[in-house]
Amino acid sequence: MESFSAFSIGPRNCVGKPLVYLETSIVLAKTLWYFDFEAAAGPLGAVGEGRDRGRPGEFCTWDVFNSTHDGPYLVFHPRGSAVLYEDLKPRSMGT
C-alpha cells in the first residue's frame, strides 16, 4: 500500500514544515478576519450534513486511510468593517 507524506517523517523530515504550518495558519486567520461566511443557498448548502446520523446542520467527515469529506460549500462576503486594501498596502520601514 502506498501513502503520501508531504513533508516526510523521521529525522530527515522537511525543515520547511513549521514555516508552511505558520503560513497556512496566517492565511486561515486573515480569511476569517476579513470575511464573513455562510452556507451556500439551496441544496448545495446542505451537502455534507450529518442527516444520516440524525444531526442536520452538523458537518461530517469520514475516516478512511486519511480522511475525506463532501462539502461544506460556503459563500464568503467581505466584512464592512475590515478594509482589506488598506491593510495590505506596503508600509515604509522608516516610519
From TrEMBL:
Record key words, sorted: Heme, Iron, Metal-binding, Monooxygenase, Oxidoreductase
- Read off the SUPFAM superfamilies from this record: Cytochrome P450
A Pfam family assignment: p450
Q: Which domain of life is it from?
A: Eukaryota
PROSITE patterns per the record?
CYTOCHROME_P450
Instruction: Name the protein family.
Output: Belongs to the cytochrome P450 family.
What is the protein's given name?
Cytochrome P450
From which source organism is this entry? Apiospora hydei
